[in-house]
Every structure is written in structure tokens, then in C-alpha cells.
């Protein structure tokens, strides 16, 4: 594709102007994936309007940080709606089927990190990946993550979720040779600063292969891990 | 592989005890990639000792943040040493040959970001990827990055390097559908805080698919991008 | 005007002493614009007292961050009151009519930035500018803002409102050749720190012509943009 | 101009590809002003290459943060070079002549703020504005700025430069009814944090009409003030 | 007094051990002033117990940050209780009578700073000073504070209370030649950070004679100002 | 014990997989102490499940930050439950009996620090130490802590709890010759930043022998102090 | 004095316009004290020019943060110059003689705090106070400051200088009943953050009567302490 | 010992007044350990003066952060001086002999952490402990620390030194059941912020038994670890 063609493509990129939003019906063509709507900070009616515009071609739409009342409104107006309250993940329309070798591992340091981990796991599943969960495997009891090295070894991408000191991704990064997407969580108190300490810790990971997304951004991590997983060649 | 086997493997993981370092000769087996030594904060003699221990099996060893005198000492004592002063990247031993479809794009916002970008590019090359560089394509002249959309569309992973407000990865992330590894640089002054502003900006990217590594960590970004690139299936 | 005269003017500058406030009846003469009262942190009675003192000469008074009960009290006691709940903007008295060439563009990155944008837009309107709104045009779908370049090109001042990574003003600043007043919003989560990340990002904009006001300070941006707009010469 | 035309214009926007930089020869058409090169973080040879590409049509090129050796190299290779060491401002080519009513006031709180103020003043002059300087007029001796109210009253835009507590723009903002562009400087010690305190203080100015640029960013302030000045209608 | 005597005095310093508190009955002798109890973070019963222990010798006890229910309980159990809800200041017992020349000025930048200012004013009054209040005299309308220079000139200590950019103490410090105790308030939004910006600004005041107490610490400022006032020699 | 044995021990380290948690039944063997469950961020049912798994061998289980409803559920389902609402400490099963020479001193600066101090004290008691409490002995009335030097001299470890400026541990550290574990509390306002100031102050203590735990982490301090106390030799 | 008179006084306030500075010859009348010039950030020639303008009436001029070469230039051109290299304090002209009861105590926590303490002490002396120095009396050996309680008891104002955890002012504040001006110093390492920790600690002092000036601002503290000292009534 | 006796002891606590320092000859009696002098920020002559005063009774004096020239001056004037340049530790006089069961383990994450670790190790040795060093055992190659579990199991206190993400203490804390004193180092770059990230990470350790000292404070950690070690009962 030439530059001219690329620009023409951009120029004619369709979006539905809703006044309060420009629903980007173009993204499925451009990025080849399930459409995503960020549910927080929008009224249920606004979210419904956007989802409707995006769901017109029959594909899957993922609503993240979806409030209960938004999920209810979607459910009343649209078919095929699934909603998980712990993670706030809502899907509208049919989910893709994972390929045979697909495998994303989602690991957490503690029990309190599970809601964020579920956001990652369900996002990856909505995008077409198979997900295995390893929860409460923090580094203060190192034998817990060591007992899962065989599962980790088969993953094509890993999401590592941790609050407090955020040490888990560094240990996991040393055990696998695939990208580790680290998610700091706002779990902790005092000098955890709502996840900043974990975020900084992960930025400074001594393990190569670790990159970081925003605090509590399970969606972002699941999105990237699934992207890597789905594009990986069979071993 | 069972848990028992995994643990046995870990237990017998060989490293060469050098007193000041435990050279991890095991990593090539465990992680299947070129060995890496972080050159800063080590005396030239310490780096030489570690590189020697790692290079024994004839593979490639990558020394990052390599001071000039360390590169000189390596060059005097070992064969096949290449050193780039701008990025501080030094390789010892034969580099892997990239596969036909390999493609990592390294883009920068400005001219001053080039040293970090070169660290990323040369790391990815040392690990076996083909790299295309797009430099000085910051968002204040948006037509510059738009003119490269065709090249970006063929990449299997993108490294986006920017200082100041760090907006480039968000724009790039919206143009491609592969993972974008964002590298904040310490370029800027005043409220750029040595890269913190760019780092925070990138953490909050509105584009899905963007993850972040530490400030000026070109190596980390090149490592992850190459990992993704080499494992990608041909389209 | 000589220094002596300037000082005499200052010395005799009238204000109405209300005990809890010194209502600055002088400002309309001194600054030639609609009077402004900051409604937050004042009791409805205090705001009413100040507005009354300022509205005596029949001009327009603008109350920002106006709580519902303050608006109600003003409405009960004074004529010609308009109140917008989304932005908290309340005007008392007749609004000025915009000049034919007047044009302020208010753009937002997302849907959640609209309340702050409305504060800017309605402030500029209350001061006598014509306003065009371009909402949900963030940089992750760059074609959305590109499709509005013709409108932007006619603006005499632009207000760019964004949370999260705050990249929009840099892109807009590169598309226009008039001042861009950037408003960071507290929209986002995690490392957006209630708008600090967007603020810092905007401070470091690589585009010339961008200056910044406080987080969520739609009023300040609208005020400046209108000031520039109304004083601009016809092209 | 239609969207199609706007995009075509962007698509064909010319820049000279120099490898390390994309010199934006398009900006003069697009933004109608003197071209600007940021001199810091570039080698003298890189800056020369870019200036050459930009100066080809005979217009004025402004190099900011220009190191002495870069200025020397430009002087040796190009005609009509002026260099001010205090502010690091270098101009290549003929400066525009200011219009009769043009007036930008540049005020500083102290003597140490002068280098940044000169960057602002010389930038505005290079862009075609007339500039009046009012230096060392900080608020601890309030009579100093009060004695200049007559000059301030004639300005079409004001640049207010201050370090330490950064209070000057708030006082100036209350004395004039034109936009005040505030520049925090890194002057001070201890809890001035290299200008952060002044920056935050200015962000929170109680005077309407004040917007802020980055610490020590005299260029940015001069650029915006001149933009406003040159577009202002005669009173 | 010799060191030995000083230590003996300390050794025998009486306090009433209440288990949850050691009520310091010694302070009145040691520091010669009204006793003070910090009411926040204590149950009403705890505060009552402490006040009782301190009030035994018939002097005045000042309770700061006093919750309504604590004031009620004190009122039910003790005589001579005065309570101001705005500032949370409660006094138990007879207040000292100010000397003829006593004068503390308490000035605020805005209307929202009044609760903190009242804490300062009432503290100084409870300790025996005469207080004059100058409210809503912020620097954006500089003529407001200038109109009070005659009153300020008679003060023996000044308390300057301001939120947002905290510029008032610098201006006041230049107008008087007595100590100015600056109190940052948590008034403001966005980058005011709950008073941190004002605090930093005040720390960096360009006026000599300004010192700073904690955010919203009206008590501390009133205490110091009164201490200075009461010890001043008649002019 | 050889490395092989150590690894075998780790490999076979038992934990009960509960899905949401991996209850570490191994820790009592490995670390020889009462088991600990962090109660916050877990549902009452999750906590009950974990406590049940840990309490199976009849030892003592300590639940920290235990919500009232969790304590109630534990009480309904398990025997020997003690719950302190102030500190949120809940113990299940029989507590160890302290040795004759055991002594941990827990000191606080103020009354508001007591809840954190009680967390420390009750943790140390649950682990088998004898505890003496010295409350409200802050440094502004230095005679209060000086009057307790004889008690402090007998302690085998000290926990020093303080908010605000956090000066107490430095003074205590100079009075004793045993380790002082400092606990910053979130007590205070304004620039105390929820305990950060106290934390930083304690990190910089000029007294040797002072180490620090997280803000409000009474549990951590009590745990360490008791560990030191129980292992100390009789004098 | 009426408002009119006050404003006339301000209006006619004389200053010598030097271009780079407005030397405030008015301040001695307005504030009744020795003139002060901040020597850092000015060229020696600029400082000389300002000192000359201020010294014309034969009074004392104090130059703070005075570089060696500035002191030399002053010495060559003016009579009666005294310069202390440790503190950077330079006085030009005759110093005032202290009154009999004058007493300012300057205390430091450690030996490294002495340069800042000397700045305070010499400033107070230049302004006409008698100063007693108590150095190296930090709280980790509490008996050192306790042994000086008799001297402290006679002081009319205290300057307390400390780096690291900054605990000294709180202890001193509890021992005296006069204002304590706390000066944080940049002494320390790691989490002392160049004095920020000490500053924050002092802001949160649990002792009433403590106010704070900027990091390393010995001048400011000496100025305030002397102001209080000189205005105090004899006991 | 009664309160009276404690105070008398404090009162008569001897120190040698050197003007610039109060050498605390009392500490050996009070705290029973080797005397310590902080060498940084003192002139060599000041350090010599203090060491002489402290060494008079023939005990051991430890000088930390000792500059080369101070060590040289001590060596010239005093006998039995040992100096280690890497850690800056200098001892004067005979070192105590460790008891048979004494064992402090000092572990580091990387090679660059060794200088701080040596400060800890040599401090503990100077105070009378036996020390085993385990260097370069960071968590990215977890088998390295796991291979040392047998040595760790015999330690009576552990010092864990790490920069970057500071994860090592959490892993070590889970492997041992003795106190772990964590030392953040300023090793790293970018978002490691000179050790702040490691410090925060360690404050939030998920392992019980971990407390933290200041960045690079090897001395503090060695001091505490040795204190615990020497007071431990034989197992």
C-alpha cells in the first residue's frame, strides 16, 4: 500500500457522528479485532448509542469498566450480552473461538488482585485467546509460582498482576521466554500509593521481556497479551 | 514437563560463581536468546569476566550501556566485537540472521531521541530481527508519521521512542494493529522531569496495544519487540 | 495615562465591602469584560450578595462552578438567569452578541471530557464569542481530528480539552496557526493522577503555540480564548 | 476548504528527509510564521543541515537554545546570522518589521529571570512584534510594577517571567485585560524545585487570563504572545 | 538557672497519666500560655478527660478542630464554654484581656479561606491578642489589599491566609516590617493539590520576614502571631 | 541442610489450593510462627476458607485488618476467636505463652496513634511476646518519654509509632540500645500526606538502630519486634 | 495614616532604575532595616551596582549567597566590607549595635548544618541582634540539647537548623515559649531529598510556635528571628 | 533503675564540647557498642578531633562514608586504622571478636549493589558479628538465591541489598524466619529515581519480617543486623 493509498484510507475512514462521540466503525477493518468501548464516564444511554453503531455488522463488541446499569440497558436492547460484575467486563455479540495452540497465562500475587486479573483474562478471551489463571502466587511464598513452571512454559504471553511491591513480574520474567505484560494494581495501603509503587517497581524490573500498562488496566494487558498470542506461530 | 522436572531444572541451573557476579550460563537454554550483560556499574574487568563465562559456548553476547573502555577491553581479549558509541551497544560473537518476514519498526518523535532508538534497534538486530528506522516523526507535524503508514502496516512489532509529552505512541498505536512498545526518553527540560512526564503520558495512552518500559530503556523495548517479531506467524 | 493617573485609578478603584468579600465593581471598567464569580466554596447567600453588587449596572455576570442551590437562589431573586447543570455555568443578565468573524473551537479527546469543554464553551459564549464544538476526536483515531481541519483553520483561538495522556493539544497545535489553550482534565485512572499526567504532558507539548491552564479549568481556557478571539483583526 | 482538500494538503505536505530529521518546509505555508529549530540536543552539523533546508526560500529561521558552536557554524556557512549569548537565541535571515500598534510587554520578577525573558523577547521580535521590557519588578516591592501600569495598559499581550513563588503573573493579570503568558523559571533554591513551585503557582493563578508554558520556556511564551499581538485588531 | 536545675525541672514536670494521654499540666508554667488540646482524632470522652485535667487551676483551655459533639459534651460538663462552628475553635474558661497596643492582622486572599483565618483569629484572641480581620483581599485585585496599608502598618504580627497560588503573603510581606506568618489553605482544585502549591509558593516567598506553617493550620499561625504580638514592646 | 534438600523442601512445600488463594500450610514449619491472614480485600467467606485450611493442625491463626463481618463469620464457624475492633486484630486458636524475660515496648507520640500501636501490640502478643504500652509520649513534651527511660531500658525490642513529623523514633533510638522498629501513621493533616512525611522522617533518622515499616503497618512492626524479642538471649 | 496617604507613599516610593534591577532605596524607610541583596544569580558587576545605589545613605547593606568574586569586587570598590566564606554572608557598611537584652539562639542538629546556621547567625547580627550558637545538639543524643535549656530559656527567638529527619525544632519548641523558626537543610542522603524530608517534618511539628522557612534559607530565619528579637519588650 | 536515676544519668551524660561538635563519649556506656562517626560533611580535621575524643578509652571507633583524605589523616595520627575504599568504611582501634554462633547474611541483587553491601558487612564485622556475603542473586534468575537457602537458614539476621525494583527482600523474607533488613540502593536509571522505587517497593513487601533503612544506608542495616545477631540466643 502506498502513502497515497494510506492517506486516502484514513481520509475516508468512516465513523458515526453521535455528537457526544465519534463511533469508530472503521477500527475493525483497520485493526482486525473486536471493537472496544470504555464504559466508565459515559451515561448508559451514551454507551448504548455507541455499541449499537459498532455492533451493526454483527461482530463482537467489548465494553470495559461497564457499570451495572449500562449492562442492564445493553441487555434490554441488544442480544447476546454477557456481563461479569467482578471485572466489569461486558461483551455484546458472539466471541471468537481460540486457535488450538492459543495460551495466555494470567497470574496474580494475591487474592485481592483477582478483579483486575479477571478483566485481563476476560478481555483476552473476548478477543479469541485461551486463558489459564494462576492466582495468589506472590513471591513471599516462592514455591507457589515455582510449582506452576510447567504451565508457564507453554504460554505464548503472560499477564502478571500485582499490587504492593509488584515483584511478581520480575520473577515470572525470569522463568519464561515470552513477553510478560505487567499490571500494577491499586491493592495495598500506605506507601503503595494506590499502585504507584507497584508501577514503578515493574518499570524497573531486572528481567528482560517485561513491559507495563497503567494501574488496574487489566483490559490493556489482556489486549496486548491476546494480540501476541493470536499472532504467534505454532512452536 | 512436570513440576518436579521444572524444579529439578531450576535446581541444577548452572551459573559460574565469579564472587562479584553469578554468570547465568543457563539462560540461553532457559530463554533461548542471546545472552545480555548490563555494562554500566561494572568495572571493565568485571564485564570481561562475565562475558567470557557467557561466551564459552560460541553464541552471541550483547553488552548494553557499554562504556568505551569496557568495549576496548573486550575487543582486546575477545574476537568478533562490534561497538556503537551512540547507543553504547556492544556485541560479542556472531549475530543471528533474521527470518524473511521479520520486521520491527523503530520510530522517534525527535532527533534527540535517536540514541535511545538506536539502543532498541541494535538490540533487536542482535537478537535476530530486521529493523526499519523512522526518525523525527513527532506529532506536531502529523503528516510526517502519516506518510509512513505503509511501512508501519508491515511491521510485526513497533518501538515508539519519545521524550517531552510522549504523544507519539498513542498516534502510532491507532495506526497499527500490532503491539507498540513505548520508550519514554529523558529528552526535554523543565516539567519533563527527565522523562517522567513522557512515561506517565505513555502509561495513560488512549490507544490499546501500548505498553511501556523504563525511561531511556531502549534495550528493553528492542528485546520485547524482537521477541514478538521472531515468534510471529507469517501473515 | 501617566503612572500618577494609573495609581490614582487604582486608589479609587471601587469595591463593595461585604465583610466576607470585596465585590470588585471596578473590574468591568478595568478589564472591559463580563464580571465573574467563582461559585464553589461560597454559600448561596454569599454568591447572591456578590452577584447583586456586581449586576447593579445591568451588565452580564457569570457564575462558574455554580451549585444547583445557588443557581436556584439566583433565579428566585434576579432576572435573566440561565443555568447549565453539566458545566455548572450560570449567567445572570444579557449576554453580549458575537461579532461576525468570531470563532473559538472547543475540541475534546473523549466523551468524558465534555463537562469541562462545556464550561469553556459557555464561558466564551457568555463573554461574546461564537463557539464550535468538536467532541471525541482523540489521537488514537487520528482521522477524526483530521476530518475537521477545515473548521479548525477558521478558528481565531482553540481550546483543546483532554485527560489521560493529554496528547490532543500537540496534534491540534500542529494543524493550526492560532493560540491553543490546553485544558487537562481529571478524566482517567491509575497513573493519570487526577489530571496531573495530562497537565505535565501539555506543558511539554512539542507544538509551539500551546499554553496550559489548571486541571478541569474550562472557565480559564474559555476566558483566554474569547479574549484572543474578540481582539483579533478580521483576516 | 473541504475535508478532502485539507487531507490532500496534509498528504502532500513537503518535508526534506535528512535521515536524522524531517525538516518541515511546509510549516511556513501552514502556519505563516518564521521557521523554528530547537538547537539543544542536536549536533552543530545537524542544526546546520536543518537550517539550510528551511532557509532555502529566503525567509527567517529562528534557532532556540542555540549552543555557541552551533551559532559559529551557522555564521560561517550562512549569511545574516545574529546570536544573543544570554538567551541562546540565534536568527538566520531577515527579521519581519513590526506593525505600528504592535506591543508585547515582557516583565520579570527578578534580575536572575532575565535570560529566560530575553528568550521570550527576542523570539517575539524575530516573529515581528515590538517588545518593551520591564525587569526586576517582583511583588515584594509592589510599587515597582505599579509604576508601570501605563505601559502595561498599552500591551496587546504580556509575558510574565518569574521563579521562586511565581506570584508576578497573578498581580499583572489583575492589572491588564489582555492574555498573560506566564513563564516559570528555574531560579531559586530549596523548595523551588527547579521551577516546579513557580509552575504550580502560576497554574493556580487567581487572575483570569493567565496561561502557562513550561519552565524556562521563554521561546514558547514569546511565540504565543507574538501570535496574539500580530493578530490583534488596532484598538 | 543551671543545667542541673533545668533538668530537675523537667524531671519533676507533672502530667496526669490518663492511659490514652498524658495531660501536660506543666505547660502553663513552662510556656506561660493558655493550654491547647487538639480535638480531632480523639473521642469526645477523651477530650473531656484531658480538658478537665488541664482546667483544674482555673485557666483557659483552647480546643482546636473541636467536633460539634465534643463541644456539646464539654458544654454539658464544664462552665464558660464558647464554640465557633466555622473554625471548630472551642474555649473553656475565661479568656485573657489584650493589652492596649496589641494588634494581629489576619488577612485572606478569598472568601473560601475564611474558616482557616477564623481559626487563626480566634486562637490569637484566646491567647490574649486583639485581632483585625481583612478578608477577600487577594492579589488579582491588588487595590483591595493596598487600601488596607494603614491598618497593616499598625499590626505587630500578620497572619496571611491563602489557597490556590498563595501569592498574598509575598505582597503583604513587602508592605509591612513585622513577621508575616503564612498559612496555605486547601482551597482550590486541580494542581493546587490540597494546598501543596500554596505551601511551596509561600516557602519560596521573595519577601523577607515570611515563615510558613502547615496547610490549613490556622491555629499554629494564630499561636505564633499572638506570641510575637504579646511580647512586642510598645512602639 | 544441603541445597538439594532445601530445594526438595521447597518443591514439596504444601499449600491448599482454594482457587482464589493458595493457603500456605507450610509456613508454620518453615518459619516457626503463628500463621497470618491479611483480612482486608477478601470476602468473609474467602477469609474463613483460608483460616480453616491453616487452623487444621490446631495452632494459632492471626487475622489482621479483619472487618467486623469477617470476625463474626469466623466466630460462628470456629472456636477460640478473639477480636479487637480498634486494631482490627483477630486471633483464632490458643495464643503462645511469653517467656519470662520477654519484653516489647510499644510507644506512641499521640493519642490518635493508638489504633496502629494496638495492632503492633496485639500482633506481638499473638506471637508470644510480653508487651508494655507507653502512649502519648511525643517529643513536644520531652519529659514524658524521659520519665519512661527505665522501662525502655528493659525492652528487648521497641516499636515506636508516630504520625505528623515522626520524630519519636529518633529520640527513642538514642535512649535504648536495642532495635527500634518505627511505624509512621497516617495521623495528621496538610503536609503530613497521610503518613508520607512521617515515613520519610523515620527513614532519615539520625539514630542508629532504627528501621521502618509501611505507613500504619502496626502488624509488620509487631511481627519483627516479637521475632527479635523471642530470639533474644537472657541478659 | 490614611489609605490615601499610604497609596501616595507607595506611588512615590523611590527606586533606582538600573535596567537589570530596580534598587529599592525605599525599603529602609518602609521596613526600617538593613538593606538586603541576594547575591546568587547576579554578576559581580550587577551586585556592585545595586549595593552602590543602596549604600548611598551610609547605612548597612547585607549581601547573601555572595560569591567570592562578588565580595572581592565589593571590597575593591567600597569601604567597610566583611565577608564570611562559610556562609557567603557579606556586609557593607557599619553594623547596628545590639540592645542589652537582645538574644537569638541558633541551634543545629549536626556539624554539617553549620554553614546554614552561620548564615542565620550572621544575618541576625547584621540586623542588630546578639546571637548565641549551640551546634551539634541533635535529638539522637537528647542530653546534648537538654544541657542547654538554661541558655534557650533566655532567648527571645530561636532558629533551629536541621537536615535528615528535621526533628530538632519539635524538641526545642517544647522547651521554650518563644517563636522557633525552623530551617531545613539539604544535609543528608537518599530519602532526605535535598532537604524536603526535613522541610515536611518541620511543617508537621507537634510543637506549637514552630514556623518554617525554605530549605537552606538561613538568611530568612535569621531575618525573622532578629525582627522578633529587636521588637521584644524587656521581660 | 528509677526515673530519677535515669534522668540523673542523662543529666551527667558526658560529651566533649568541640565547638563544631559534641563528641558523645557517653554512648558506649549507654548503648554498649562501638562508637560511630559519620565522615561525610566533616572536614578531615573535624573528624580527627571527634575520633580522638571518642577513642580515648581504647575502644573501637567506626568512621562511615569516610573520604580518602580523612582516612589518611586518621592513619597518620592514630594507630590501628583500617580503611576500605569501596565502602568508605574506616575503623580505628581493635575490632571485637564474634561469638561462635554469630551469623549475618548480606545478600545483593546485582554486582552494582556491592559497595553498599560492603558498608553493611564491614559495619557488622566492626561491631562484632560474623558475616557471609551472597552477591548477585537477584530475582530474575531465581535459582541463584534458591541455591543458597541452606546458608540463609543458619543466619540470625539478613541484610538484603537491592536497587531497581527492589524485589529481593520479599523473596528472601519468605525463605527465612529471622528479621530481614532491606537496603534500597541508588542503582538503576530512569524511573528508579535514585533508589526511591526500591525503597517504596521494600516498604510494601508482602513478606512479614522485612523492615527498611534509608537509600544506600548500608551502615544502618549492618548496625541493626549486628545488634540482632549479637543479642540472639544460641539455637
From TrEMBL, chains A, B, C, D, E, F, G, H:
Classification via Pfam families: AIRC
Ranges where the PurE domain occurs: 102-234
SMART domains: AIRC
InterPro entries: P2CMN_synthase_LarB, PurE_dom
Domain of life the protein comes from: Archaea
MF terms in GO: hydrolase activity
GO terms, biological process: 'de novo' IMP biosynthetic process
Gene3D superfamilies for the chain: 3.40.50.1970
Name of the protein described by the UniProt record: NCAIR mutase (PurE)-related protein
Organism expressing this protein natively: Methanomethylophilus alvi (strain Mx1201)
Amino acid at each position: 500500500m502506498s502513502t497515497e493509498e494510506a492517506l486516502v484510507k484514513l481520509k475516508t475512514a468512516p465513523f458515526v457522528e453521535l455528537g457526544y462521540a465519534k463511533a469508530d466503525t472503521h477500527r475493525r477493518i483497520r485493526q482486525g479485532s473486536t471493537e472496544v468501548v470504555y464504559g466508565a464516564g459515559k451515561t448508559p444511554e451514551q454507551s448504548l448509542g455507541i455499541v449499537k453503531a459498532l455492533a451493526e455488522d454483527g461482530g463482537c463488541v467489548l465494553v470495559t469498566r461497564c457499570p451495572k446499569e449500562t449492562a442492564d440497558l445493553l441487555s434490554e436492547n441488544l442480544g447476546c450480552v454477557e456481563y461479569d460484575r467482578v471485572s466489569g467486563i461486558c461483551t455484546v455479540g458472539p466471541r471468537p473461538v481460540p486457535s488450538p495452540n492459543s495460551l495466555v497465562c494470567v497470574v496474580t500475587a494475591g487474592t485481592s488482585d483477582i478483579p483486575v486479573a479477571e478483566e485481563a483474562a476476560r478481555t483476552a478471551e473476548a478477543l479469541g485467546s485461551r486463558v489459564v489463571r494462576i492466582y495468589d502466587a506472590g513471591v513471599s511464598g516462592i514455591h507457589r509460582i515455582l510449582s506452576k513452571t510447567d504451565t508457564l512454559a507453554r504460554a505464548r504471553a503472560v499477564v502478571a498482576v500485582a499490587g504492593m511491591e509488584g515483584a511478581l513480574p520480575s520473577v515470572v520474567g525470569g522463568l519464561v521466554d515470552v513477553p510478560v505484560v505487567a499490571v500494577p494494581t491499586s491493592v495495598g495501603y500506605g506507601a503503595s500509593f494506590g499502585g504507584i509503587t507497584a508501577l514503578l517497581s515493574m518499570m524497573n524490573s531486572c528481567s528482560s521481556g517485561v513491559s507495563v500498562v497503567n494501574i488496574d488496566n487489566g483490559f490493556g494487558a489482556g489486549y496486548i497479551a491476546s494480540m501476541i498470542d493470536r499472532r504467534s506461530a505454532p512452536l
